[in-house]
Design brief:
By secondary structure, the chain is an alpha/beta fold. It has helices at 53-61, 89-102, 118-126, 149-152, 159-163, 168-178, 184-196, 199-209, 213-226, 245-250, 268-271, 273-285; strands at 12-18, 21-28, 39-42, 66-69, 108-113, 131-137, 231-236, 256-261. The protein has twelve helices and eight strands.
């Protein structure tokens, strides 16, 4: 059973150097000893860990230790040159494995959402012994998935070089994908890395060009069919970019649950955190 909420709450901000890479992450670390496995939350494109702010606060209220890193190339994490970091799914997956090991977390629950966060699913499939529970918000899962044009253009020669240097790509993508207005204050934080350095745009361009969705999605789709750890899908059914067909099929399996959100779209944690937090907390608090 999850114990009572602590009296105070704060999202901490930290850096961690892992080999040649510096990770930035947000964390809630309850004062009382948590009785659940630590949770890692992985964001999609073109966001960073700030997108989990509301859910992080809810997790701390219920004494759950949670960490939301900025992917390498995103937010305040390192943005190495493509000659030094490949920006491929396998490179991201290895970097994630090294980050989790550096945090000295023998076992975690994983929450993922969005394009690139599918790397978290690859990590889970490759390291099932390290996973307690898996929670998936709108994330590509099927070999039929295609990059939406609003993201695909970031990888096109010349066009992508210009588009990824435009800080307003964040506003356009997050509001188009979520279907709702995001406050100016929050957009300013999402946009901030693009205003500080051109390296974040170059990293985004390299990431898009190297996603290799057809290969990685085939591996993920097959892997999830045989994955034996508890899975909770929290799915925005009005997502303009991802179908719910694969999720609904997987939800027929034993140990897999689906919470459909009729009005939510691609970034359900941005506008629906209050609605989904209780179900996520309940799922995390169960004993396997």
């Amino acid at each position: 059973m999850i114990i009572n909420p602590p009296l105070t709450m704060a999202i901490l901000e930290n850096f961690l150097e892992v080999g040649s890479l510096k990770w930035f992450y947000r964390q809630v670390n309850p004062a009382q000893q948590p009785d659940t496995t630590p949770v890692i939350l992985l964001h999609g494109l073109p966001a960073h860990g700030y997108i989990w702010r509301e859910l992080l606060t809810s997790l701390e209220e219920y004494n759950i230790n949670a960490i939301a890193p900025d992917w390498i190339g995103s937010g305040l994490s390192a943005k190495p040159d493509a000659r030094d970091f490949a920006y491929t799914p396998s490179a991201f997956c290895q970097a994630l494995a090294d980050f989790i090991q550096a945090l000295q977390l023998p076992k975690i629950s994983l929450i993922v959402q969005g394009f690139l966060a599918s790397v978290g699913l690859q990590y889970a499939l490759e390291n099932p012994d390290k996973i307690e529970r898996l929670i998936v918000l709108n994330t590509p899962l099927s070999k039929d998935v295609k990059l939406p044009w609003i993201m695909k253009q970031w990888g096109i020669p010349f066009l992508g070089d210009m588009a990824t240097q435009d800080p307003l790509l964040v506003d356009r993508t997050l509001e188009t994908g979520s279907g709702f207005v995001i406050s100016d204050a929050d957009l300013a934080i999402f946009r901030q890395p693009y205003l500080k350095t051109s390296a974040v745009g170059r990293a985004l361009l390299a990431t898009i060009r190297n996603l290799n969705l057809s290969k990685t999605m085939a591996e993920i789709e097959t892997g999830l069919e045989n994955f034996e750890k508890p899975i909770l899908f929290v799915w925005g059914m009005a997502d303009p970019w991802l179908s719910s067909v694969t999720v609904e099929k997987l939800a027929t399996k034993s140990g897999v649950e689906l919470i459909p959100l009729a009005e939510a779209k691609h970034y359900p944690q941005e506008h629906w955190s209050k609605e989904i937090s209780p179900q996520i907390i309940n799922f995390l608090g169960r004993k396997t």
